[in-house]
Predict the structure.
Amino acid sequence: MPTQFDAIIIGTGQAGPSLAARLANAGRKVAIVERKLFGGTCVNTGCIPTKTMVASAYAAHMARRAADFGVGIEGAVRVDMRRVKARKDEISGKSRTGVESWLKNLPNCTVYEGHARFESPTMVAVGDARLTAPRIFINVGGRALVPDMPGIAEVPFLTNSSMMRVDFLPRHLVIVGGSYIGLEFGQMFRRFGSEVTIVEKAPRLIAREDEDISACIKDILEAEGIHIRLNAECVAFSKRGDEIVARAQCDEGPPDVVGSHLLMAVGRRPNTSDLGLENAGVLTDDRGYIAVDDQLQTSTQGIWALGDCNGKGGFTHTSYNDFEIVAANLLDHDPRRVSDRIKAYALYIDPPLGRAGMTEAQVRQSGRKALLATRPMTKVGRAVEKGESQGFMKILVDAETRQILGAAILGVGGDEVIHSILDVMYAKAPYTVIQRAVHIHPTVSELVPTMLGDLKPLG
């Protein structure tokens, strides 16, 4: 006989555990299923471990720059990759065990460890167990996409997940993919001491961003000695002794890149292909993302999809917001929607990029009248004082409503400063609210009002 629950949650990423707690605390009988590591991508192979490693790389970078600040360090800076990995494992491990302990000690919640598969719209199998519930929530996340590129099956390669096991310094790390994952790992390992080449098929890095952002990031990375190969349309792989050869017929440079290790960072795919979704009538798009409506319900009544598997965000913060939307609708009678969300995210190279709302290209494509202001970080006192004045700020405003349309802050503190802009956007307030605010000196944030005072029509 199947075990009856009020709700079944598949996956323990950012949305699942919090939803389990809300439902359990509301008196619902909840089952939550995890087939591998508690905490999902963010805790185990994403945000927490990678940003921990970014911090180690930043420490090495600043140690090498110590003389710029009048500080003397005897001898060469040495990075102990085993200690870097141990620190990362400790921090990530505490988060993972914290999630696991929380769920296993949560009243009204039963944890099942194993692979979940739908047998019907209301029944899920986990090993020999059969669970049934009128409401089922899918929170299975995603994994690295590895396209069937020529020669890829003949060479060893790493992904963002297997990079978490690296406790050595690659002599020459070749990274295929010039977007967020590739750039973060590229700068990180360059600062650890590896030679790094980034191969990107597009004509510029992170093509979703504006061209001036892409160009500035390229300059920042190349200044640290990272090789960047663009327009690599015909990437293929082969072995040459112990080396890996990536064919990259680019506009500039030799056609082949020869390295010791290969990282594939060309995108993500949802973990939906082995859930038996067809048995529940749950529809997906051609990439495997589960189709959902504005309140995250799937094509089957009583089934919701949250987090990376629904293609509505792909970030930890959007996954958590998915939980908030579902909980608000089911428990609080508050009709929250995905469409209420403003796109916002960060790129954690150094200096970081904080992004909110529309890009300049999107504003131009919209045809609306808009105002634009920019400010180089060399004109930001706090950045100059810290010796970190690379990058620039940019903000776009609707000329008629005076509401902020979008912003990009590529510079020290940009991942934090962007929130002062984002909050005004959520308030639907005119830009003059933040322009007239008195910010603390000396900070990076204090230059946002100053920048808004320089708005000009978007030409």
